[in-house]
Every structure is written in C-alpha cells, then in structure tokens.
Amino acid sequence: MGAVLNRLLATLLLVCCGVVATGAAASAAACPEKTPPVNQQTKRADAVFTGTIVERSEPGNDVTYTVAVDEIFKGNVGEQATVSTPARLKDCGLPALGTGDEYVIFATADGEQFTTTSDSGTTLATDAHVDKVQTLLGPPTSPVPPEPVEATFTMVADEATSIERLVAPGLALVIVGLLGLALVAAIGRRKA
Questions:
Q1: pLDDT tens-place string over residues 125-176
Q2: Widest Cα–Cα separation across the chain
Q3: Nearest Cα residue to 85 out of 52, 57, 104
Q4: Dihedral, 105, 77, 91, 60 alpha carbons, nearest 10
Q5: Which of 102, 139, 147, 151 could pair with 125 as two cysteines, CB 3.0-4.6 Å apart?
Q6: What are the tens digits of pLDDT across the range 3-32?
Q7: Per-residue b/e over 109-131, b at no fewer than 16 CB within 10 Å?
Q8: Is the dihedral of CA 11, 14, 19, 22 positive or negative?
Q9: pTM for this structure?
Q10: Which of 111, 41, 100, 42 lies closest to 76 in space, CA to CA?
Q11: Residue 63 CB partners (closer than 8 Å, separation 6+)
C-alpha cells in the first residue's frame, strides 16, 4: 500500500508542477518582453495619435487617462480621448504615464474609448518616433476641423445687364445659323 501511495503522491506532484509551469508560461506569453516594431504596431492599432495626458484616474483594475489630442495619424479620434490600460505592469499595463507629458498612443478602439498596453507601442512622443509613424501612416490630421471658409460676393459691374445685351449673342448665333442654312440650300439647288 505504501508503494501505491508513493506513486500517487509522485503523480500528484508532477501534475501540480505541470499546472504551475503552464500557468507561468501563459502569464509570460500574455505580455511579451519585446515590443513589436513600429510597422506592426501601426497595422494592429485601431487608432494612432499624439496627445498630452491631462488627467489620470484609477477606477478598479484599470488606469484611465484623459488625453488632449494633438495630431491623428490613424482612426476616428476627437479633440480629447479617454485611454484605459491595466493598472498592473504584469498585466501589460502602462500605469505610470505622466500627466503633462506628450505621448504617441497606439490604441484599440472600444466604442468611443481606447485601450492601450505595454506591447502596443505607446511611448513618449520624441521627434524620431513621430517621424517613423508619419513615414508609415502619412501626414497627420488635426482633431479640430478647420473653420469653414465664408464665401464673399463681389459686384463686378455697377449696373445690371439689360435684357437686350443678354439676348444679343444668342440672336446673332441664330441669324448666322439661318444664313448658313440658306447658303447650303442655295448651293444644293445649283448642283441639282
């Protein structure tokens, strides 16, 4: 009976080690150590934009940032964006983005809110990084639509044109057309 119990305990120990190893591998795979290159980050992001963190809050297991958007490279983003991230680093979160700092944000859209993680590519907005993004996605747009241009009308003459003056060119074309027809008819009769 002792040998059976030892085998059972050994099997149980191996199963437990396998569960722990699988759990560690799964958690390590959940948040990769290496951030993908910028071209992959731009492809998988729903929105790419630059902006300054104006507010930080920590509701529940997430950190939520309010971002004043400066330039939009990709996606439908307004003048202000709400960006959430996990509150813990081990969950691929970015809980330490600084208020007042400008970032290039790579995010996935969740309705009107956005989510970013440590492997998304979100980083401080250096000139070199913004240039890389612009090379891949083209020039940015502004979150504020341009003011509509108001049309102005300028009078080119002091007086309105008379009806005779408006009709004269058309009447001249009709007369020339009729004369042309008469000439063609006359030439046609001569040949016949």
A1: 999 999 999 999 999 999 877 677 887 877 776 677 778 888 888 999 999 9
A2: 134
A3: 57
A4: 130
A5: 102
A6: 554 554 444 444 444 444 444 444 444 677
A7: eeeeebbbbbbbbbbebeeebbe
A8: negative
A9: 0.61
A10: 111
A11: 56, 57, 84, 85, 86, 87, 93, 94, 95, 97
